[in-house]
Design the sequence.
């Protein structure tokens, strides 16, 4: 049997960590078993639909670097892959259930149904509570009469006939056997709305069947809709796909991950400067394990190692500090050229360089990569860390220049010594330059750190900076001496 899985988002919001985890697990399972990964857009919720969310979907996965085998943008054998382009078939399947006695026409007004809903708690899930709390008033209408009224044009919806007793059993790959009392299932939900639009539940089941979906991997928040879907499969006489409800992703407080915990939308992670490799690696480990004692995996390795039996039942905790660690690890694996290309957009956005920098700036940026690599937690850190390389830093407060137990006059005198020693250095010889300062320290009886502190602040604008002598080499003697003199005069003012 060919394994076919799908990611079926509703374009009603930006892609976020939870939805990307669902897509990634489906992708990895398909890759691990030689299956097919499908994208289907479930756009039946027209009130919240936006084309910008569709574009965000495509942009997100192009950036992440894993993609579907069939979908709206690349086609496939079971398209179209957008539900709004498949409406005709939903009506025919809804009518089929009516003819089988598994569904019925309902003529209740929207006002009457809304009144019943007002005191009810909606069922979770995209597509919304189509008929939560409905009293089944039209269920007993004679089918012939109902068909006649519908044919005459009387406004109606089609509702699924949920069994009044018995149980529906879900054999979940992860959670095992779960029994649902039919009496507790959303009573007779709407399948087809009065305007001919299908509800999420009908479109989801019909499309999974027609597209040959063999396995459904989705978040556990969808568990309440499982019995409804299984009842529908049984009503059609179709075998349901294998279902696996993935563990929830929670914040460190044990509640469902949300904006109060930090970034959740993929756009936010991209803007902050997370690497795609770090996000994929970390998200893949949210609720799953691979090789014991190992943390870093490429996308290809994850696709080889992924196993459904290695998914955990317990919720996964999203740890931003752990993700930051992953990001740092992948930043440090980048070559100087690769890292330069990654930080360039951030330097450009900060107006430190042009969007297409000249060769001089490219050489400078690439040369700075060994200096800043260990200091970058995120790519967005680069402008603040590297700004001193492109423009003179603002003169720091006087106390920043002054070593312990000294004063401004003494710090100014130290800068004069620094300028003299620098003029005698071969800046291409970093080790030799540092040695000359050590010799000056020994000869003058001044602490080596005290000799360098005012110089570091003059060059970089901060006591904490990338390596000093490497920075001096990159900037060149004229720029360094000009900054030292400006800082010396600042201390004397």
Sequence:
């Amino acid at each position: 049997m060919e394994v076919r899985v799908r990611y079926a988002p509703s374009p009603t919001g930006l892609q976020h960590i939870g939805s990307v985890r669902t897509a990634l697990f489906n992708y990895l399972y398909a890759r691990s078993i030689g299956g097919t990964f499908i994208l289907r857009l479930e756009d039946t919720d027209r009130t919240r639909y936006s084309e910008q969310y569709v574009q965000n979907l495509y942009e997100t996965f192009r950036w992440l670097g894993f993609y579907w085998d069939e979908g709206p943008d690349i086609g496939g054998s079971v398209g179209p892959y957008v539900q709004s382009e498949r409406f005709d078939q939903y009506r025919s399947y809804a009518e089929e259930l009516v003819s089988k006695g598994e569904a019925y026409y309902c003529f209740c007004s929207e006002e009457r149904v809304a009144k019943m809903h007002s005191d009810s708690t909606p069922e979770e899930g995209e597509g919304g509570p189509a008929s939560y709390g409905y009293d089944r008033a039209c269920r007993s209408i004679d089918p012939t009469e109902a068909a006649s009224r519908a044919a005459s044009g009387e406004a109606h919806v089609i509702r699924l006939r949920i069994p009044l007793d018995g149980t529906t059993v879900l054999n979940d790959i992860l959670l095992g056997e779960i029994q649902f009392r039919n009496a507790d299932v959303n009573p007779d939900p709407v399948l087809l709305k009065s305007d001919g639009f299908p509800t999420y539940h009908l479109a989801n089941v019909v499309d999974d069947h027609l597209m040959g979906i063999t396995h459904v991997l989705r978040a556990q928040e969808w568990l309440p809709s499982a019995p409804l879907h299984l009842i529908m499969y049984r009503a059609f006489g179709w075998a349901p796909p294998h279902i696996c409800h993935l563990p929830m992703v929670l914040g460190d407080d044990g509640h469902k991950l949300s904006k109060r915990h930090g970034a959740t939308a993929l756009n936010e992670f991209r803007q902050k400067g997370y690497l795609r490799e770090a996000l994929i690696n970390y998200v893949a480990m949210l609720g799953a394990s691979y090789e014991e004692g190992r943390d870093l995996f490429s996308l290809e390795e994850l696709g080889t190692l992924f196993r459904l039996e290695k998914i955990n039942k317990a919720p996964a905790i999203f740890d931003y500090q752990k993700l930051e660690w992953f990001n740092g690890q992948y930043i440090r694996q980048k070559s100087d050229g690769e890292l330069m290309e990654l930080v360039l957009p951030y330097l450009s956005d900060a107006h430190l360089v042009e969007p297409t920098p000249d060769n001089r700036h490219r050489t400078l940026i690439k040369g700075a990569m060994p200096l800043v690599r260990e200091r970058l937690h995120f790519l967005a850190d680069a402008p603040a860390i590297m700004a001193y390389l492109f423009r003179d830093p603002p003169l720091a407060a006087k106390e920043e220049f002054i070593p312990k137990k000294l004063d401004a006059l003494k710090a100014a005198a130290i800068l004069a010594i620094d300028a003299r020693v620098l003029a005698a250095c071969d800046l291409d010889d970093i080790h030799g330059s540092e040695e000359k300062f050590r010799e000056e320290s020994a000869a003058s009886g001044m602490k080596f750190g005290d000799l360098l502190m005012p110089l570091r602040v003059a060059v970089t604008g901060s006591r904490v900076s990338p390596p000093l002598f490497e920075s001096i080499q990159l900037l060149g003697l004229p720029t360094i001496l000009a900054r030292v003199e400006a800082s010396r005069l600042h201390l004397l003012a």
